[in-house]
Amino acid sequence: MSAGTRPDQPPYGEIVQFPCRQNNYGYLLADPLMGRAVAIDTPDAPALMAILEERGWHLTYILNTHWHEDHCGGNAWLKEVTGARVIAPAAERDKIPTTDIAIRDGAVILLGSLTIRAIETAGHTAGHLSYYVPGLGAVFTGDALFTMGCGRLFEGTAETAWKGLERLVALPDDTRIYCAHEYGDGNAAFAAACIGDQEVSARAAAIRLHHGRGKPTVPSTIGLERRTNPFLSLPLAAQRENKGVEAECFASLRLMKDGF
Predict the structure, then answer these.
(1) Does residue 59 lie within any of the structural domains?
(2) Residue 189 falls within a domain, yes or no?
(3) For 70, 74, 106, 171, which has the most beta carbons within 10 A of its beta carbon?
């Protein structure tokens, strides 16, 4: 699936992030030199279209992370207006009727010189995918991984969800995490209650300050989340002590957060 390539040039692209709905973020990933873009989910189709028109970009693909309405609800309208093709998780094709191309873990999408790799991060839903763009050092995690938190497990087990998070924490430390919701304030409070070290406390305080001023806590980075996100740091610590207990640790944390 290619939107054109320039093998003689280094990767070049731009990420546009915008808030929408109650606490969602929408994203456009573009190759401005070619004037082509992909949308990561469609939480607010008119807002996405306004950005495309302002920038003079053509929407080539819509990449859905999962089937929930606030992630794919704008697919049909954007397809009709732009002719974009919808790429979605194969395991959720029946729940995303606008799907043109169904993909699984490891699938590759090309946008100009940018390579986008699908990473299975099921758990929140049965086929949830995240999208990694190594040329820009960015990963779009939908509802799988948040700033200092993770998504609820609606359709998967803790073991399945942890396997997906392990795939994400294996990415380079400086990879920026673009998640789909602004949940930083609540997640920071839970993290501070779980982990009392100085870095976690300082980050939680900074996030509360940002939230109070209406500033985003997204993007984060893989390295920062690995150190300060309890859903990553505590299972990883348990894994180092006794390999095989990390999913159980994660499950306990998820239950605690659900009742927090």
Answers:
(1) yes
(2) no
(3) 74
Question: In CATH, what number is assigned to the domain containing residue 149?
Answer: 3.60.15.10
Length of the chain, in residues: 260
Q: CA 188, CA 165: separation in Å to the nearest integer?
A: 18
Q: Do residues 188 and 148 make contact, with C-beta atoms less than 8 angstroms apart?
A: yes
Q: Give percent above pLDDT 70 in the chain.
A: 96
**Number of domains making up the chain:** 1
What is the Rg, in whole angstroms, of the alpha carbon atoms belonging to the chain?
18
Q: Containing domain of residue 165, as a range?
A: 14-183
The answer to the question of residue 43 being in a domain is yes
Q: Backbone phi, then psi, for 196, in 5-degree steps? A: -100, 15
166 within domain boundaries: yes
List, for residues 136-186, the tens digit of each pLDDT value: 999 999 999 999 999 999 999 999 999 999 999 999 999 999 999 999 999
Strands 176-179 and 220-221: antiparallel
Question: Quick one: which of 24, 54, 59, 20 has its CA closest to 39?
Answer: 59
CB neighbour class for 94 (10 Å; exposed up to 12, middle 13-18, buried from 19): exposed
Residue type, 242: N
Question: Which residues share a beta bridge with 6?
Answer: none
Threshold 0.85, pTM exceeds: yes
Please identify which residue in the block is written with the tokens 């002590």: 241
CA 248 – CA 257 distance, rounded (Å): 14
